[in-house]
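Section 5.1 Outputs to date
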Amino acid sequence: MQTECSARQYEFEGFDGRQVVADFAGGDMTSNAGALLLGTVDGGLGLIRRFAACFSDRRNLRYVEHQLETMIGQRVFALALGYEDVNDHDELRKDPTFAVLARKLAPVLRKDCEALAGKSTLNRLELAKQASKYHKITVDPRKVEPLFVDLFVEAHARAPKRIVIDLDATDIPLHGHQEGRFFHGYYDVHCYLPLYIFCGKHLLAAKMRRSNIDASAGTVAEIARIVNHIRKRWAKTQIILRADSGFARDELMAWCETNRVEFLFGLARNARLVTEIEAELAVAATACRETGKPARRFKDFMWTTLDSWSRRRRVVGKAEHTLQGSNPRFVVTSLARSEHAARPLYEKLYCARGEAENRIGEQFELFADRASAATMAANQLRLWFSAMASTLVATLRRVGLKHTQLANAAVHTIRLKLFKLGAQVRRSVRRIHFAIASGCPNKTEFEMAFLHLNRAFAKT
């Protein structure tokens, strides 16, 4: 209902013979109307419901105003919309868009509170520990981790012939005394070292880790879990692992060779490797001097380390010379020469690994680097909240925004152009009407997303 028309008016300097006045009689308003599209995505995936099923709630439900699924939805949708802090929810709980996304318009048990949870309630959710007198909501990692793989598999109508799984580690700087805090020499900061696993634009795992470990630590267990899960549905799909030199470890490569998984990893250069491609480097240097342009040659050879590898493996060396000097690079792979020649193997397949770094950047746009809680468990939960928000936005982009100018847009761009839409909200007994501005510049993208999402999820 709109407020009374007698609201106080504020008169500003007029022009062109017109008065300029303002008041607070606009009724319910929202600046997040575009997020209704995220509600459609969630309805199609059942993401919030399935994520909530990974938690245990030991509260006495007879006295619970804010249900677990509602609180989790609030947190995930808020991250997608750019609200990183639980403090924001003291205002967001009054936003009609969030009320619609949470499917709750009014309090059920307590008439003296808002329909949605505030910062204190959500803070208890985020900082959940082992079940105790004061912490009665807990999350089971064994249920959360397979959910990402399930969502990935369900996104395909049929089993693909080949998938490429990217592994990468990054740093989350820490500025307090969090559990598991260590100094990392490469990043030159106290940090966590989370492991991210992607397949294209699909997130398969987000694992919070201490930083006093090798980048590949725990990777075999994670990959074994993901590969086994995928093969239950796609037994004949070829799986290729791809990563930088931080993952070129004998344990991981040997596991791949034993389990019919191909790999393509960067290989840190050393004097022995550079010696192996000396002739190619000389040819590239000559070509660079003659043309004034960078030149590169490739060499394919079998190679092993002095003591850390259990067998000889195929290595491709890129002998490149630029105007700045020599730039040799190497990769190690299990892929056969007959199917993957050296140059396209490096330039087309390996170099595409950079897309995984873009995906990690998107996680940070959804505040995955917020690790200010005291415990590793709480920071892992925050990482999963961001990962779920990432899944919602990525699905919207992949399904709803295909063939639009936002088909490859960054999260920040989608948030600004599509989610942050002002609207007047009118409620009646049978209807909640969001009246979005007529001059909205991205009206076409909104309409296309609405049509594509409803068509894609019509059978779900």
